[in-house]
């Protein structure tokens, strides 16, 4: 039992409007659905909010059709000028999933400060001190409070070299030697897999070497039902601030509820700077505003298995939603079981974004294609050194495989210098399309650039051209329309007005599948024969809805069996679609950007 004779108030950052949304819904929520609860939270006296960065920067324009900078500015107006608004950034990746140059990170910091941010929490999934120093400087230069992170994680295998209290303490010791200003230190456990004893020993050791004016902050998730215990241990070790949420965006893969933590601290001499009695009203507003959203039990329930697959709550949510959409949620447990191997082979980097996504996609590839048969580009580049130095040496055999399959040599240089100049590419694209070149527009496009991805599918361009892909986790609504009401794909337009902005979207309504539609599994492409000719339809390898990102052939082309004729994107990765037979392309039924599934042919091959 922790106890202090000297009363101490623990500062709370309120996380439901960033990490809570990301953990439960992958960040895919409309601004109007959370603003009433944000307003009530400010009225309740809360003065420190997490409101942007992480997936809550990308999700608004990737999946909701909203400008994240507009969202941030509106939240700033709602909470007033005096509240602290905090973002989360990913070191060399910033708020993106790929490495960026220092010039891009400098623009990012400038825009975040402009749109209301006061505190930037910056982590490096490798815990690479060089990366933390170099990416911290633009934050300091922008005038924001620089909160540097030590990324925590419980390893799914034994090691006395990494992810121990001494390992974490030494990161701060090294930072104190460097020429970088930081205003606070955060112990960030995105997966909730660090043991309470490690939290205690780490906090105690870091407080011993930190200057007294620098606060120590702790962040964890309740995925394994240990978050309150970890916070209690951290507070006993000297932690000054913790992150908490409120139902229905608390617990499970998110942070503990304020009320749970306040109750745990009763009689200890410690208290929170948030009134737990005000949480009922905020919860009620969230329940009302989010009543149309589908809460997936995988993201809202605790799962003790996470100690063996250290995935952060903010990544479990999006990945579960993507797997469900693609029709492959049945493979969830198999992917989890592959985690210890991909973590070991990678060198034990922490499972914070983009490291978590890299682990997930490689585990997914190992399940779908066989172990190491397909190397995820991000995972492979991390193995090869393009994101920095991992805590432990990666598996030499997997390094060799990654280098061969990605056709990249191992790298030991500066990831920031090796990164492509996305700002130049973004500006050129904006000019080419006649879109106004502003700092915000340029950064939105740059933040969505993925090497090898067609610019037509760039989410920043889609937003600015009013053709965003809207993918909200809403409850299914049954239609009373007869199945025969629509028999062919029908184009229509939908006009949406919100916050004084009016946008028009082109929508293709697909007819419902007939009882004769061909079946498919995630491992094979089903043929179907047209009654008027000998033709084989080519389908996505996924049962559910995925996006068509490449069509490599045209009508009249001759193809061979097994030739890659198209590609779809599932789980944020590209997957080849291969010809099931040889012949001539007789029809192309879908265009890049269309959603396809096992029941919607992409093209047809005439034998």
Describe the protein:
By secondary structure, the protein is of the alpha/beta class. Among the domains are: 14-173 and 294-406, TIM Barrel (Alpha-Beta Barrel), CATH 3.20.20.70; 535-606, RNA polymerase II/Efflux pump adaptor protein, barrel-sandwich hybrid domain (OB fold (Dihydrolipoamide Acetyltransferase, E2P), Beta Barrel). It is built from 22 helices and 19 strands. A nine-stranded parallel β-sheet has the order 2-3-4-5-6-7-8-1-9. Strands 12-19-17-14 form a four-stranded antiparallel β-sheet, with no helix packed on it. Helix 5 (102-114) packs across helix 21. The longest helix has 15 residues, at 355-369. Mean pLDDT is 89; it is low at 477-491 and 512-531.
Strand content: 15-25%
The CATH architecture of the domain at 14-173 and 294-406 comes to Alpha-Beta Barrel
Mean pLDDT, rounded to whole units?
89
Kindly report the spatial arrangement of strands forming the biggest sheet.
2-3-4-5-6-7-8-1-9
The total count of helices amounts to: 22
CATH class of the domain at 14-173 and 294-406: Alpha Beta
CATH fold assignment of the domain at 14-173 and 294-406: TIM Barrel
Helix content: 25-40%
- From the alpha carbons, calculate the radius of gyration and give it in angstroms: 24 Å
Query: How many strand elements?
Result: 19
The stretches of 5 or more residues where confidence is low (pLDDT under 50) are 477-491, 512-531
From the N-terminal CA to the C-terminal CA, the straight-line distance is 75 Å
Tell the overall outline.
globular
Pairing-aware structural class of the strands and helices? Answer: alpha/beta
Fourth-level CATH superfamily of the domain at 14-173 and 294-406: Aldolase class I
**Major sheet:** 9 strands, parallel
């Amino acid at each position: 039992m922790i106890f202090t004779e000297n009363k101490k108030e623990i500062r709370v950052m309120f996380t439901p409007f960033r990490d809570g949304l990301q953990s439960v819904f992958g960040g895919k929520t409309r601004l109007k659905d959370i603003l009433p609860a944000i307003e009530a939270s400010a009225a309740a006296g809360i003065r420190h909010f997490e409101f942007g960065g992480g997936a809550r920067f990308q999700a608004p324009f990737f999946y909701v059709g909203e400008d994240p900078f507009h969202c941030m500015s509106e939240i700033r107006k709602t909470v007033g000028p005096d509240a602290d608004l905090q973002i989360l950034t990913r070191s060399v990746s910033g708020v993106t999933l790929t490495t960026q140059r220092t010039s891009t990170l400098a623009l990012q910091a400038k825009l975040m400060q402009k749109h209301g941010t006061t505190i930037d929490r910056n982590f490096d999934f490798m815990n690479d001190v060089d990366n933390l120093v170099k990416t911290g400087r633009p934050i300091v230069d922008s005038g924001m409070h620089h909160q540097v992170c030590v990324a925590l994680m419980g390893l799914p295998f034994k090691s006395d070299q990494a992810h121990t209290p001494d390992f974490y303490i030494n990161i701060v010791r090294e930072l104190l030697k460097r020429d970088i200003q930081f205003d606070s230190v955060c112990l960030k456990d995105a997966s909730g897999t660090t043991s309470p004893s490690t939290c205690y020993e780490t906090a105690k050791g870091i407080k011993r070497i930190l200057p007294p004016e620098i606060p120590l902050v702790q962040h964890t998730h309740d995925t394994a039902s240990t978050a309150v215990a970890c916070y209690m241990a951290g507070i006993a070790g000297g932690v000054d601030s913790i992150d908490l949420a409120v139902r229905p965006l608390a617990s499970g893969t998110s942070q503990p509820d304020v009320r749970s933590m306040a109750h745990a601290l009763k009689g200890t001499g410690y208290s929170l700077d948030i009134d737990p009695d005000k949480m009922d009203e905020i919860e009620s507003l969230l329940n009302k505003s989010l009543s149309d959203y589908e809460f997936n039990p995988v993201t809202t329930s605790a799962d003790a298995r996470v100690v063996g697959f250290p995935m952060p709550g903010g990544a479990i949510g999006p990945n579960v939603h993507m797997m469900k959409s693609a029709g492959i949620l049945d493979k969830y447990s198999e992917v989890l079981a592959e985690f210890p191997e991909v973590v070991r082979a990678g060198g034990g980097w922490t499972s914070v974004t983009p490291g978590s996504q890299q682990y997930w996609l490689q585990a997914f590839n190992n399940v779908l294609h066989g172990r190491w048969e397909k190397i995820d580009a991000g995972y492979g580049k991390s193995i090869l050194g393009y994101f920095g130095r991992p805590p432990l040496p990666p598996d030499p055999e997997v390094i060799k495989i990654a280098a061969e399959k990605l056709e990249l040599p191992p790298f030991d240089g500066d990831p920031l210098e090796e990164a492509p100049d996305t700002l130049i590419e973004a500006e050129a694209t904006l000019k080419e399309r006649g879109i106004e070149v502003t700092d915000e527009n340029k950064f939105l496009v740059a933040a969505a650039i993925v090497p090898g991805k067609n610019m037509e599918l760039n989410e920043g361009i889609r937003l600015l051209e009013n053709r965003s892909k809207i993918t909200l986790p809403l409850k299914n609504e049954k239609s009373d329309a007869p199945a025969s009401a629509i028999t062919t794909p029908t184009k229509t337009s939908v006009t949406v007005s919100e916050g004084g902005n009016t946008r028009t979207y082109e929508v293709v309504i697909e007819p419902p599948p007939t009882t004769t539609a061909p079946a498919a599994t995630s491992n094979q492409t089903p043929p179907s024969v047209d009654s008027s000719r000998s033709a084989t339809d080519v389908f996505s390898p996924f049962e559910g809805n995925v996006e068509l990102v490449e069509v490599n052939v045209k009508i009249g082309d001759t193809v061979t069996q097994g030739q890659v004729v198209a590609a779809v994107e599932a789980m944020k990765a590209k997957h080849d679609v291969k010809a099931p037979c040889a012949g001539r392309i007789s029809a192309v039924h879908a265009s890049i950007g269309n959603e396809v599934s096992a029941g919607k042919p992409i093209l047809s091959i005439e034998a």
